[in-house]
Amino acid sequence: MNIPLIAISGRNSFNRQTRKQNVIIWGRGRDKIIVPSPREHYYYVRGDGGLYNVLGRNKKIPFKKHLVENASELNPDLIGPTAKIDGVINNELERICIEHPDFFTGFAGAEPSSLGFDLEVHSSDGSFPKGEKHPIVAIGVVTGAGDRRVFTWDGESDKEAILKFLDFIKEYDPDILYGYNVIGYDFPQLFARAKVNGIQLKPYLNRENNATFGWESDFSYHKRAKLQAWGRIIVDVYNFVGRDYALSGQSKSLKNVSRFYGLNPIELNFAAKDILQYSEEEIEEYVLSDCDCTKFLFNHYFPQHKFIAEFLRVPLEMYINGPDNFITKILQGRALYKQKILTLDKNIDRHPDIKSFQAAHIKLYRPGFHPRNIKIDFKSMYPSIAMALNLGPDTTRIIGYENYNINEFGCTTTPNSMLLTIPDNVLNKNVIIKVDQSHKSCLYQMSKEFKDLREPFKHQDSHESKSKSNALKIMVNTFYGANTNLYMTYGDISVGVAITGIARWLIMGAKSLIQKRYGDNTVVYIHTDGVNLSMDVDIEWVNNELQKAMGIVFPLSESEWIEVEKEEFKEGYWLQIGNYVLRNLDGTLTRHGSTFKSKSRSMFYKKIIDEIIEAAMSKSVDKQFMDNIYNLDRYELSDFKQQRTMNQKLSEYKSENDLVVQLARDAAKIGMEVGPGTTFMYYKTMDGYHLEQFVKSKDDIDIKYHWNIVTSLMKKFSLERWVKKKVPITVLDKNQQSLMEFV
């Protein structure tokens, strides 16, 4: 790698004798080194000293710059409430990356070694196996070098298995520890069982036997959760999966993602048998299968993220554990620093009246079934708009507001600038935005560089080229959210207001052009950057007309960046905004929306909707189909099982009738520990909602509730005339059914 593995620096990382700021780096080899920080430490106070350009401000502001010795002296208690820090908060590593972009390339590390692992845990009471009372039955490991091992418990205690696993970590000494949902489950469970067994984990998991650094974790997992270790990187492959556009709408379980990528993971039926009812050999094969799948996914995604970190020239761990806006934060921060533009506040401080603004255009024009579907998409719409108009935090700023009037949308020009008028119905104002055209914005330069770099990789078929292409796609698509984030420092919300306003104009312009030429019924649906149509259109003509309009309305723009492409589908069905299904040319289905995707849905729901989709799109709904779809006897008890995750403390739920509160009452009866992150598996029964441990027979299931699910889905697909409105008494009451059979 051309970057180090890890860097650490902050208020406590300074030499007590010289008072100079230090940086701790794991770079060459596995030993850490300590080097001086390359940057000056300073803050600003308003007053005589010099005039500075400040992000988002329309004129230069006088500030006096004060130098201090190290990061600890930038404490707000020491510098006072009126002092300003470039970058707003005291983040030493971030400022090194911004002010000295090449600093960390001087400490390049070797290619990192890795170790993946997975736990299998026994539930003694039938509840989800999480917490101190649930022992670890097996720990599977797989190394980057190809070693595969399983450490199993002795039937009574998991202490020896945990210690053997920890000894293996110390012996192999990996740079990276990874797994699937390890931050949300495996590590918290490991810490829970270590506590029971009196094992101190940190000296094993951290390098140098460090017993104090990092590892603050619990079961309240979320996608930005991270863990930091001393000298190692903790990677949760689940976080990589969450950024994969190819998996949009898919279940993100390890098994499902593995199958998506052509793997065949081993399955064990834990609904039918407890894990301890399987043989030791079956358990070992199962846990190693999960380890192998996780290693495949790690090897698939990790090169993309290593490439991004190397491209940014930042420590690998800093990017891996960084927020979603990290890429834009660093690149825009560098551009602003280079131009001597101070970033002394956040979006919410610069624009206190803009808590939100008008979003992109989304509307369903023709719901229902369509036998043919053509979709035209704007290519990289938001980056392309930024490039076409030269938008960026260094060129774009709000200079005023006028009364809301949608007819005033447009642009006036001077030799070196454009004045945009963006009507916004959320702000109920026309926003006046000035865009400097005297130099190319940092966003323009970044986006063009990424597009140029990505082009050759898009036409290569190797795993490395695909990884780099996807990495560059990730980079170019992060800037919009970074500039519109209310708490962003190195971006400005004016960029977002301008982009979305022009995006609305472009998408509605495309709609008007197509309807004028092909008829009003052509347009089915619009969502942000795409128009779904019921017939084919001349894509070259659409592009020519849009670019011509851009040149007229925005005379100084580079209209050639605005371009659409076409995608074709077979039949499709639109239920409502955001909820539709399309059949691809290869026969597979593409689903959008919560109607199709919610992971909390029961298998019963998923099977029913699959059948209705197929029947509605193939026009095969008849009496036989309806009799079959309302036949609830076809399903096993487990098909009706649903799930719900607790997202806050029990005391924070307001109503005693809240579903989570009801399930928590059941959990208390079996001694199940609950808290943020707890997942309940439950059924809807005749007398309410109950955990799966309390439901033993299909006779307990609330038939009317599930009958109504079928009816509701039928109505969504406009099949009301086939609906069976009432549940027959012979279905509700098995005794009545038996009587009718007797008669």
Strand element count? 27
Look at the structure and give the CATH class of the largest domain: Alpha Beta
> Uncertain regions: pLDDT < 50 for 5+ in a row?
735-743
From the coordinates shown, what is the CATH architecture of the largest domain? 2-Layer Sandwich
Describe it.
- With 743 residues, the protein is α+β, with helices and mostly antiparallel strands.
- It folds into four domains: 6-109, no CATH class; 114-310, 2-Layer Sandwich (Nucleotidyltransferase, domain 5), CATH 3.30.420; 341-440 and 486-575, Palm domain of DNA polymerase, CATH 3.90.1600.10; 598-742, Topoisomerase I, Chain A, domain 4 (Orthogonal Bundle).
- 36% of the residues lie in helices and 20% in strands.
- It has 24 helices and 27 strands.
- The protein has a five-stranded mixed sheet with strand order 8-7-6-9-10, with helices on both faces. A five-stranded antiparallel sheet has the order 12-19-20-14-21, with helices on one face.
- β26 and β27 form a beta hairpin.
Compact overview of the structure:
The chain is an alpha+beta fold and 743 residues long.
Looking at this protein, list some descriptive labels.
Nucleotidyltransferase, domain 5, single chain, 24 helices, Palm domain of DNA polymerase, 5-stranded mixed beta sheet, 743 residues, 5-stranded antiparallel beta sheet, disordered C terminus, alpha+beta, globular, 4 domains
